[in-house]
Every structure is written in C-alpha cells, then in structure tokens.
Amino acid sequence: MRKLFLFLIIAMILISCKTNKQVIQKPSIAFSFDDGNQEDILNYKGADGNAMIVNQLKKEKIQSVWFFCASGVDDEEGKKLLQKWDQAGHYIANHTYNHPNYNDTLMTCVALVKEIEACNAYIIG
Questions:
Q1: What's the pTM?
Q2: 103 DSSP assignment
Q3: 94 lies in some domain
C-alpha cells in the first residue's frame, strides 16, 4: 500500500511538472471611466470629447467600463452618450444616480438601494 501511495505522489509531481509550464501573458491594463460627463472639456464640446475617447478606444481595440452616474447626464444628450458607449461595446456599470457619500451617517441601505435602482432604470430604460 505504501509503495502504491508513494508511486501516486511521484506520478502527481511528474504530471504537475509537465503541465505547469509557465504561460507568458502580455501585460494588460484596464480602463474605466467614472460618472460620465457631457460638459465641455478643454477646447472640446462634450459630445466631441466623448466621441474622441470612444473612437480612440475602438482604434486601439480597448474595451472599457463606464461607471455611469445618471445625475447630470439624465437628459436626451445623456441618453445618446450612453448609447454610443454601449454600441461601441463598452460595459456600462451602475454607479448610482446621484453618487452619494457612502460614509455619510444619514446614508441608509434603503437609500442606497433606491440610488442603484434609479440609475439602473435610466441605464435600461
């Protein structure tokens, strides 16, 4: 019995050595965008600035995550902006409606759930 057990351990080690070839992985980076902005940035109009970002990400074949906060972009222009990011293949993540301060002692679980639901309704709807 001991010989069989020893044989199994040696076999497992040999199999492990053969299958544990180191996989060389290219360096990677993650891009995420926080909140969303349709305001003018530097000399670029909001829609133009966002289009430049989306186009550059597409050119470089980079997929990103937009942590979307609906407050401030909850109008027709904001909906178009959200659609463009979505259609470009980026993930849209719920970042609450108003981006409240979670450390605020008045923040409750119920209030946070309402924030998430309100943003979710905007993203889906």
A1: 0.69
A2: T
A3: yes
Residue 55, helix vs strand vs coil: helix
Report the distance separating Cα 93 and Cα 102, nearest Å: 18
Contact (CB, 8 A) for 73 and 80: no
| CA separation, residue 43 to residues 40, 46, 53, 73, 101 (Å) | 7, 10, 14, 20, 31
Q: Is there a domain that residue 34 lies in? A: yes
Above 60 in pLDDT, residue 7?
A: no
pLDDT at 56 over 90: yes
SS3 category, 81: helix
Structural domains in the chain (count): 1
Which residue, chain included where needed, has tokens 């993203």? 123
- Residue 27 has what pLDDT? 81
* pLDDT of 24: 77
Residue 11 has pLDDT above 60, yes or no: no
- Confirm if 111 and 100 have CB atoms less than 8 A apart: yes
Nearest to 123 by CA among 85, 58, 108: 85
- As a whole number of angstroms, the distance between CA 68 and CA 9 comes to 52
